């Protein structure tokens, strides 16, 4: 009988080269992923003197991945990729001749469109279902020490080594919440990373709850526990809301499927019992109290979770950006100007020169025409993925639907000026696309044959 190695040895030289190049591209994607998770750790703890250059450590990887994919002919023309790349190229010109005029800032802003957004389609093209599962299981493994780390950061003073800020700043990397506790950043440079990471964990926890045979039971229990404790220790309503959205997607997916619905109900009962048990311990109860205080205080000041998180932060930011679009220069103030790095280079201080909200930043940097076009491309792409994911759900495929539960909002409104947010948007967007294009029966190293013009 022929084994895989024998069969591969009989392949033509060009076929073997294609397989090797596909493996190399996949390795590059994994390196991009691990730098996304541990870039902040390098900048804070291990290489603090290189904090600034490490901010763009994933950019050379993105360039290499684009080059290798271009050589392999993996790029397929589609309206979203073409539109974003054109906007990126035009924004370079308008930033120099009609905007802030700084080449470095313009390049930093345009790299979002030209280097990182295309990676979504590369991941979607070369990743198989098995690759998605590997990344999912790796994420579950990482969630366990990450939960331990944020609990240490929660209870440690900001001067402690685990709480050091960028470039070894002894002032700490935690973000003030209320009372005596700070929101922990985990291995990331800012607390947003903790929120995005555990929001990324949630879809895999629920997916494997539906598919218990595909994961070790102890790993699913441990990762589920890590996700549970991350909510109070993060002191983040956004994480609470994000996990709630994934739960709602899972419940919707289980409707009409008795076995799946029972698993969801059983999981919720276990979570409630575990929460009640852990709440009796001082270790967990202190974090729960801090989270509850933050939840109550913020809700009172912002009018509740729905109004504060959904209304003001999400819908409010979108409406405000569109309402103020007419006040911006037609060609914008220049790409990159709305980022912290751009502000540092232009003014010497890290501040929001345009708008903290993503849509406001895009319209301010690019102008009403290109800014709204960029928004429409992002919204259109996310909605297309949503429609395709729902169609696959109706056929019994849960994976793209559950990944969408986290990916939909970052793709539409994620703060791509922030490198960690940009990285998670790229990874989750690519995984959703890969899940839509591949079935579990497809060979591991075969690019999908789906025509991306349909997406």
How would you sum up this structure, described in words?
- By secondary structure, the protein is an all-alpha fold.
- The chain has 2 domains: 243 residues, no CATH class; 159 residues, no CATH class.
- A two-stranded antiparallel sheet has the order 1-2.
- A hairpin with a 2-residue loop joins β1 and β2.
- The relative contact order is 0.13.
Features:
single chain; 455 residues; mainly alpha; 2 domains; two-stranded antiparallel ribbon; 17 helices; 2 strands; globular
Question: What's the short story on this structure?
Answer:
The chain is mainly alpha-helical and 455 residues long.
Tell the overall outline. Answer: globular
**Mean pLDDT reading:** 87
Number of helices: 17
Number of domains: 2
In whole angstroms, how far apart are the ends?
41 Å
- Report the order of strands and helices: HHHHHHHEEHHHHHHHHHH
Task: Give the C-alpha Rg.
Answer: 22 Å
Indicate the structural class.
mainly alpha
**Largest sheet, strands/sense/barrel:** 2 strands, antiparallel
Helical fraction: over 70%
């Amino acid at each position: 009988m022929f084994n895989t190695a024998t069969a591969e040895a009989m392949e033509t030289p060009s076929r073997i080269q294609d397989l090797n190049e596909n493996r190399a591209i996949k390795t590059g994607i994994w390196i991009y992923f691990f730098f996304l998770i541990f870039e902040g750790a390098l900048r804070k703890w291990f290489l603090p003197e290189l904090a600034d250059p490490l901010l763009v450590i994933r950019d050379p990887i993105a360039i290499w991945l684009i080059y290798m994919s271009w050589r392999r002919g993996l790029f397929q023309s589609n309206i979203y990729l073409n539109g974003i790349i054109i906007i990126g190229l035009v924004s370079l010109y308008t930033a120099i001749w009609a905007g802030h005029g700084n080449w470095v800032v313009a390049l930093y802003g345009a790299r979002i469109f030209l280097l990182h957004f295309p990676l979504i389609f590369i991941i979607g093209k070369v990743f198989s279902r098995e690759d998605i599962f590997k990344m999912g299981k790796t994420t579950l493994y990482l969630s366990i020490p990450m939960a331990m780390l944020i609990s240490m950061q929660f209870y440690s003073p900001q001067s402690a080594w685990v709480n050091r800020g960028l470039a070894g700043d002894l002032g700490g990397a935690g973000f003030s919440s209320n009372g005596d506790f700070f929101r922990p950043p985990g291995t990331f440079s800012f607390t947003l990373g903790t929120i995005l990471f555990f929001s990324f964990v949630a879809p895999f926890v629920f997916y494997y709850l539906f598919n218990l045979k595909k994961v070790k039971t102890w790993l699913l229990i441990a990762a589920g526990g890590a996700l549970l404790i991350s909510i109070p220790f993060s002191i983040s309503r956004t994480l609470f809301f994000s996990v709630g959205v994934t739960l709602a997607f899972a419940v919707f997916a289980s409707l009409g499927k008795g076995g799946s619905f029972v698993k969801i109900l059983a999981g919720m009962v276990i979570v409630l019992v575990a929460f009640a048990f852990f709440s009796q311990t001082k270790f967990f109860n202190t974090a729960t109290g801090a989270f509850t205080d933050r939840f109550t205080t913020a809700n009172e000041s912002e009018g509740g979770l729905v109004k504060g998180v959904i209304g003001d932060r999400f819908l409010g930011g979108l409406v405000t950006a569109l309402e103020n679009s007419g006040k911006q220069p037609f060609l914008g103030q220049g790409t990159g100007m709305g980022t912290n790095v751009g502000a540092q280079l232009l003014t010497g201080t890290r501040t929001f020169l345009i708008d903290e909200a993503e849509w406001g930043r895009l319209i301010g940097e690019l102008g009403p025409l290109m800014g709204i076009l960029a928004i429409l491309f992002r919204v259109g792409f996310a909605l297309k993925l949503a429609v395709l994911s729902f169609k696959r759900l109706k056929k019994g495929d849960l994976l793209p639907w559950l990944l969408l539960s986290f990916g939909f909002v970052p793709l539409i409104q994620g703060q791509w000026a922030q490198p960690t947010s940009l990285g998670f948007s790229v990874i989750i967007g690519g995984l959703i696309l890969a899940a839509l294009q591949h079935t579990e029966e497809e060979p591991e190293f075969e690019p999908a044959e789906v025509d991306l013009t349909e997406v």
